[in-house]
Amino acid sequence: MTATLAALAPHSRAKRLSPLRFQSFADFFGNDNPVEVEIGSGRGNYLSERAVRNSEINFFGVEWKSKLVELSTKRAERMNLTNIKFVATDAREVVRTIPLESVLIFHVYFPDPWFKKKHLRRRLISAGFLKMMFDRLIPGGRLEIATDNFDYQIAIRSEIAAAALPWRASHEQVNERFLDPVVKTLFEMKYTEQGRVLYYFELER
Fold first, then answer.
1. What letter would DSSP give residue 144?
2. Contact, 86 vs 44, CB < 8 A?
3. CB 58, CB 47: distance < 8 Å
4. Burial of 2 (0-12, 13-18, 19+ CB in 10 A)
5. Cβ atoms of 30 and 51 closer than 8 Å
6. What is the pLDDT of residues 57-75, one digit of tens each?
7. If 0-12 CB within 10 Å is exposed, 13-18 middle and 19+ buried, where does residue 109 land?
8. Coil, helix or strand for 111?
9. Could you confirm whether 112 is annotated as catalytic?
10. With contact defined as beta carbons under 8 Å apart, do 144 and 109 qualify?
């Protein structure tokens, strides 16, 4: 299949496919600038603010809910941002299609902890998914993760250990993000106001 995602039928199953199945980051953005990817970009607040502050970087937001992607896209248009795009599809589908060693930073903030035992297999952070992201980071690239769930932060640590990847550096902090502490997600601001404990991980390839 050679058609770009934009050319596919709007109500076809293909609308949920990653645009990177059909084109490179350079084609997708129209330039060769570095790329940051947010998994679960929600309403696009965080990534849009990053895009404002870093015009030399391209930002790619991945969100399952189409309505949120529509809101994110409209926000970016209002802000006249040309270095950011959003897509409504599954995170695993997107990451599988990203070229190796092409991402500067992966942002994964407050993924669903899936509290019920029978749903634990749905958790995004797994050894396999960590391996997919690791392979797609450039040397020196980083993976930023945050959660407010105590059990999930234990699970994340276990999955990092199980993946046994050769990270150059691995750090953990509580209630203090590593990257650009001034810019926060909506959940981050909400949970901070509620006094929740926030767990941060930073992994550098």
1. E
2. yes
3. no
4. exposed
5. no
6. 999 999 989 999 999 999 9
7. buried
8. coil
9. yes
10. yes
Query: Active site residue: 27, 32, 90, 112, which one?
Result: 112
How many CA atoms lie within 13 Å of 60's alpha carbon, on the beta-carbon side?
Answer: 23
Closest to 178 (Cα-Cα) out of 143, 153, 140: 143
**Two structure tokens written together for 155:** 């699970």
Instruction: Name 83's Cβ contacts closer than 8 Å, sequence gap at least 6.
Output: 29, 33, 51, 54, 55, 57, 58, 59
Beta bridge partners of 106: 37, 143
Helix (H) or strand (E) holding 158: helix 150-163
Per the structure block, which two tokens stand in for 5? Answer: 């995602």
Q: Which two tokens stand for residue 175?
A: 């209630």
Per-residue pLDDT of 80-115, as tens digits, reads 999 999 999 889 989 999 999 999 999 999 997 655
Domain made up of 14-204: CATH architecture: 3-Layer(aba) Sandwich (3.40)
How far is residue 171's CA from residue 180's CA, in Å, rounded to a whole number?
A: 15
Tokens of 128: 């396999």
Which tokens in the block code for residue 174?
């509580």
Radius of gyration of the chain (CA): 17
Pair of tokens at residue 100: 């190796």
Q: Dihedral, CA atoms, 131, 73, 49, 198, nearest 10 degrees?
A: -50
Segment 26-44, tens digit of pLDDT:
999 999 999 999 999 999 9
